[in-house]
Amino acid sequence: MSLGPFYYIVEKLDGDYAHLRRTDIDSEDLMLVARALLPPDTSEESQLKWEDLAYELLE
Fold this sequence. Notes:
By secondary structure, the chain is mainly beta. Helix content is about 0%, strand content about 50%. It is built from no helices and five strands. The protein has a five-stranded antiparallel beta sheet, with no helix packed on it. A hairpin with a 2-residue loop joins strand 1 (about 5-15) and strand 2 (about 15-20). It is globular.
């Protein structure tokens, strides 16, 4: 089991959830993630890295 890193972009924020699309592979699938698991300053179009079971906001 790989613990990353995996890279995502926030496509849409929807209440308590965010729709993420992976950017490190060719995929149009969206993943639904609870916003509580994301860094506080996450917004639409934010770029994230997931590694070791945690999300990090990229600049």
